[in-house]
Amino acid sequence: MAESSNTVINYSYEEIPDLSGKYALVTGANQGLGYSTTLGLVSHGAHVTLGCRTEAKANKAIEQLHKDVVERFPHSKAAAQIAKGHRLPLEFLQLDLNDLKKTQKSAQEYISRGLPLHILVNNSGIGNEPWKLSADGIEVHFAVNHLGHFVFTNALLDRLKESQPSRIVVVSSLAYQYLPEDRFDISKINDETVGSPMTRYGRSKLANILFSNALARRLAGSQVRVNSIHPGFVDTSMARVAISASDEDTKALFAKYPNQPFLTPDQGALTQLYVATSPDIVKNDIRGRYFVPIAEEQGLNSKALDVDLQEQLWAYSEKIVKEKIQK
Asked: Most exposed residue of 85, 115, 165, 225, measured as fewest CB within 10 angstroms of its CB?
């Protein structure tokens, strides 16, 4: 991978506006992109809820966030609050996207706290996992990366509407272009013989974009804006596992982008922070779009733009969720 210095930067932490009075929720907030996203939000005044699997990991991240705000943003209002002995507005929400019932309960728990919700960043995800099923018996990439966020977002949708103007950021990947078959075949999601870890990951990332665009269409006319992003090739634990993978599909993906800049988590988070915070999104009524590093809009391929496929996935997701949550 190339160094990140060649990346065109269209957004910076200094450009994030004052977020005082804004409430955000970031999934997978304790590390990597999620941590950097949380840092960008809280350092500019937002109240941020960290959606994480364990409280211990969230609390460790919260302590580090206090240190990083002072070090990275010493002249911010947030740093001034810390200097006065105040704690930052950060809190933990237990979230296990591997289990749909638990995911729905987590959304209900957030709602029960009586907090508004202006920014939802669906950041959490897994990649390049060997074949296994989720707690609900669904291929794990599809279950965690798509269905978990499908349940979580829909359960929070009324609160997002009540809080509008609000935003939903769906973190996808350019891997959406790599499927285990020529087309998105819903009937083969739980077929172990189809695809590799990378192509199953790609299928889940295509599902993220299909969901994002279908949701944006449903929210047309509202002040809830939904967009999806590719953060780039980012130096995270998930990326390091992918790079070391030996399957041919993973090798082929990285071979196709030999000069793609390798970003730090702070750099990688800027695209989702742009979609989550930039005044441009409201000013230009940006919704149902897809952005790549850093904060650059990019067109999607025909599969991602297929409205029929978006609706098929939505119907299938609703059916599976109903079966699993109500059983």
From this structure: 85
Residue at 303: amino acid letter: K
The reported pTM is: 0.93
Structure tokens at 204: 């889940």
Residue 176 known to be catalytic = no
Q: Name the residue among 151, 124, 112 with its Cα closest to residue 53.
A: 124
Q: What pLDDT is attached to residue 257?
A: 59
Beta carbons within 10 angstroms of residue 104's beta carbon: 18
Residue with tokens 């506006």: 17
Helix (H/G/I), strand (E/B), else coil: 287: coil
In contact, 194 and 218? CB cutoff 8 Å? no
The dihedrals phi and psi of 94, each to the nearest 5 degrees, come to -65, 130
Exposure string over 215-244, b if 16+ CB within 10 A, otherwise e: bbeebeeeebbbbbbbbbbbbbebbeebee
How does pLDDT run across 88-129, given as a tens digit for each residue? 999 999 999 999 999 999 999 999 999 999 999 999 999 999
Q: Which among 322, 325, 316, 4 is positioned nearest to 146, based on CA atoms?
A: 316
> Residue 252 to residues 36, 192, 257, 276: CA-CA distances in angstroms?
29, 21, 9, 32
Q: At 57, which helix (H) or strand (E)?
A: helix 55-72
How is residue 84 annotated by DSSP? T
Whether 128 contacts 199, CB under 8 Å: no
